[in-house]
Every structure is written in C-alpha cells, then in structure tokens.
Design brief:
alpha/beta; Rossmann fold; TATA-Binding Protein; 7-stranded mixed sheet; 16 helices; elongated; Metallo-B-lactamas
Amino acid sequence: MKLYCLSNDPNKPCHILTFREITLMLDCGLSMQSVLNFLPLSYVYSNRLHNLPVWMPNDGGDTDVEGELRENGDRIFIDSLPEFCPPLDKLIDFAQVDVILISNYLCMMALPFITEGTGFQGKVYATEPTLQIGRLLLEELVTHIEQCPKANFASQWKNIVHKLPYPLNESFKPKSWRQIYNMANVNESLSRIQMVGYNEKIDIYGALQVLPTSSGYNLGSSNWIITSDHEKVVYLSGSSTLTTHPRPMDHHALKNADVLIMTDLTQTPISNPDSMLGLLCVVVSLTLRGGGNALIPCYPSGVIYDLFECLSIKMQDLGVQNCPMFFISPVADMSLAYSNILAEWLSSAKQNRVYVPDEPFPHALLLKNSKLKHFKHIYSEGFSTDFQEPCVVFCGHPSLRFGDVVQFIELWGNNPRNCIVFTEPDFDYIEALAPFQPIQMKVAHCAIDTSLNFTQANKLIKDLKPTTLVVPECYTQPPVSAPTLTELVIENNSDRTLIPYKWGEVINLPLKRKQGQIIMETEVAQKINPIEVKTGISLSALSGALTIKDNVHNMTSFDAGGENKLQKGTHYEWGLVNVTEFLQKLAQEGIIDAKVEPSGNGVMIHLQDEDALIQIEDSCTHVLCNSDELRLRLRNILMQCLKQF
C-alpha cells in the first residue's frame, strides 16, 4: 500500500492511495493561497488600483515583466487574473485513478482540474449535500472571476521569482499555477459524481469496499472507511466533535483501523470557535450601534448559517434588530433554499424542527420578516432600493481578491465607523487586506474553525486505537503561530506507529495482504477434510477450478471433462523435524555415525562415513552430499519424521 501527497496545504488535501491494484484519490482540494499575490478584481474601474506604481527589478533588466507587477506600500502584487495551485500532477497520471472519494464540499474545488482534459475515466463518490453545495461554491468562484476579465495575462514574472521581494520570492511552484476553469468544465466534472448516503457500502471493482460516515464538520461531510476482506483503512478529513448544525460525527465505525490517515485539522489551534462567535456578535452589534456598517467576507455555505442565527439573537439583545442583514452571492438564493431541505443531514435538534413543522434554520424566518435579504450581486435589481445603512453584509470572496467584497471595501474602507470582520480561517487577514492599505475601517479577526483541534484529535486517536497513524509532517511540530506550545501536536505513543508525510512524498504504508477470501461451491466445500496443524489452524487439500474476476475468487468443482489434478494418495507434509526421531530412523537404516552440532536456529548433522552434511532449521532443510542416491535416501527418511495431511 502506498500513499501519495499531491497537495501542499493539509487543509485542502489531495492524496492518492494504491492498494490491491486499485488507485484511489482521497479528496481534491484546491490551494487558493496563491491568489493573495494578485491585485483584486473590481466590477467597476478602480482609479486607486489602476494608478498603483509599476514595480521593476532594481537592476533595470528583465523588461519583459514591465506592467506585470504593481507596488502598494511594501508589497508587490501581480496585475493579472488570479491563478491557483492545483494538486501535483507529476507523481501520477490522473487517467490511472479508478475512484475519487470526496469528504466535504470545501475539498472538491480542484475536481475540474483532475477530471477534465486528463483522460480520467474513473468514478467520483460524494454525499448529496457535498455535491449540491460544492456546485454552489464552484459556480460562485467561476462567476466572480469571469465577471471581471482582464486584457493582460502576466507570466514573465515567474522567470525572475528569485529577484522578487517577499513573499513573491517564496511562491510555491508558480509555474504550475493555473487560471480558473470555466462552467463547462465544472458541469462536466460534477456530472461524474455518484451520490451516496451515510453508511452506504460501495463496491470498488470487487477488491475493496468504501463507506462514508458522518464527520460532523459541515452538511454532508464524511469520513471514509476503506476495507478489504481482512484490512481496514480510515480516511479522516475535516471532522468536528462540536455541536453545530450538521449531523454529529460517527466515532464507532472508525475504530480499530489498520491504518488511520488524518488530515484537515483546525487552522486556528489557539482559538475557541465559541468565543470567536461570541466576539463576532459583540463587534458587529457595537459597530451597528455606533452607526457603522459590518462587512463579513464569507463562503456561501457552512458557518454562515450559524452566523445568521447567533447574530440575529445578539442584535435583538443590543437593540439593533432593525439593522438589516444582506447576503450577497451569485448562489445566495440556492444556498438558503437548499439548507432548509436537508433534514436528514442535520443535527437531531435541527431535524426535530422539521417535524413541528418548522424550518430547521431561523434564517427562513429572517427572510420572511425582511431582516435578512439576499441578492446575486451589488448591482442586482432591487439592491439599491432595499439597501440601507447601518447594516451587515455577508459576501465573498474571503480572499478579498474578487467578488462583491472588493466593492464594499472600496465603498466603506475610508470610514473608521465601519468594520470588516474575518471569520473564514483559510486566508491570513493581514495579507488579504494588503492591496487595500491604507484603510480606515476597523478590522476584527474572529476566525471560526470547528474542525478538530489537537487536544480533540489526540483524544479521538486514543479512542479509535489505530495500528498505524499517518498525518502531515506539520502536525508533528508546534504551529508557526505558536512555536512554544508543544502540546499543539499529534502525540507519538508507543502503542501505535506514527508516519508523517509532506508534499510530493510517496509513503509505503505497513499494510500487506496476509489473507484472501475464496467463495466455494457447495460440492467443493463438502470435500473439505480439515486436519489441525496447530491450535486454531487447520489445513485441508482441495481440488477445483479457481476463477478470478473483478478481484472475486470463486472455486467450483471440475466439469465432467475437467481434469482433477489432486490424485488419490497425495500427501502434504508439515511441522518441524524431530531430530531425535530422525537420528533413530538413520540408525534403523544403518547410518550410525551421525554427529550433531548446534547451528544458528537449528542443528548440523555430519555423516562422516558417508561424507554428507544435513542442516536442519525451523523453515528449511539442506542436504549436502556427492551421491544422488544417498540424497534421495536421506530425503525419504527426513519426510517420515514430518506430519502429513
């Protein structure tokens, strides 16, 4: 079994697992950190962005890059459509991938890069919410970028990365970056997905079975259990033990795995999601009371549903309930509608509301009362009419490089009464704001990440008791943000094997097939005559036709014209040689000059008169002599000392 790591970001994972001649891809996350190096895309012409000074290397050469780079403060930005860092495609041909298993909708953004134009012919499995909400995220991303086309495409800067200032000079594999796919690619890739339910067993070409279980992270998120007849591998990605809106995590099914692959732990290891949520509500409410507006960059699904609920309650408590909330996204209407028809994927508390009957999420009531309003874009019909200040605006993209959020920062950025609140943990908020500096609006960092922290992960691992634990190398060291907190690591205990890995590595996992399963015809099974060779283990000779198809082994009796290769009277020897019995039988055959000496794991018997040497070990026997006749004679005597069946 081998594991390939194709992603440099453990929170946007992409792995290849090969086992029993099956090639599985575990998630296809898309690293978006690269977009922070690009200038924001604006729906309307921006004088400020357009008039940023052009940057050139100090040596005056490399004129090819002229116009590609612009400077703002101490940062250099690329003036071009943003590019993304797709999974590594050099280690394996995507056309060889048999199956892709998707854990959650945040880990499928690279799917069109993998399935389209690569020769991929395999199958893709995901739950219904993962498919449907993933579709919304993909559509929103493509729409944001396609609505702001740029005439110029910057590429020459990639040839002088070593001359560029930080952080561009540390860009990760910039020549492998790619512009975003189009909607045709998105639709084609999504059409390949087969929807599955929790605990639904899926056969993979007869060799393996895969089964998704709830991971508790977001709607439809899954951990995957991969089993053969005698082996069990668990892929744990994006999981949460907190009580939020998704169905709780299923621990029991993950226990006692031969191999546990764990990734996508929290990106905010020193923050508590509950305290961050409380801080956000306070910051937003106080901003509104001061006559300012609150801007919350976000994805169109996920924690945003909890934000609507908690924020509306806090606004009521602080007397600012009349300030409207706006949700602006190309897929806002679909996201709100879809979240309320997914009862089977929700927590029991949310499910119970459905049977009252009532909507599981309170944002349905907020919509009815016009406390929450949704629009596709800032320029959508009706927005300017309904828009009033002070207000709360939820919109994308969290990177601040495209989407309606760019317009709101331009609109509100110079007013210190306004506030921008960062809740998504995927992007460094200081880096995200860099092209907009200097900025006057207040900034609050309230990143909410409900996935497992290190304390929860270590407790879970102890409960699951895997034989081998496989984690990204960065999880075995304290995080960069807290290098002195040595408890923020995955513990290495003696009761299991810990194997770390990093980007571009191929890891050999200590899981080898020791047993296989054969389905026998009744007539063949009736001929079994087991003989116990040791406690709990019996052997029997069998004869039949063995057929292997789709990794399933079937044994049937020979046809009438078939030949039975197992002849009557055939015996099979087993066990260890009893040296004392062997010497007695040699003496009975007239060989009485045997000299026995210990040798390694066995004995050496020297027959001086016959000039022969017999070396007996636990698993093998060697007879050295010059006479073929004597060798056969000694062999026959030796076989008499073994048990038979």
